[in-house]
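Reviewer 2 asked us to include a model.

Predict the structure of this chain.
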Amino acid sequence: MVLGFEIALILLSLIMILLVLLHKGKGGGLSDMFGGGASSTGGGSAVAERNLDRITVIVGTAWFACIVVLGLLLKNN
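Predicted model (structure tokens):
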């Protein structure tokens, strides 16, 4: 059972990294220093951004729940 949650945690972590990298930058970060600020002002669907936000929150919640369950399982062993 612990192995299953460990595998799920690894997969959820990789999906989380991918989802965070897909988000559009809000500006003021390192991307603006290297010229990324000018290209980030156009394009992109608001519906797609909202769906990406929702998916990220769902995956993040599942990731957190997996960590809590793993912690409880390993504490009892």
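The chain has a mean pLDDT of 84. The helical segments are 2-22, 30-33, 36-39, 46-76. We have added this to the supplementary material.
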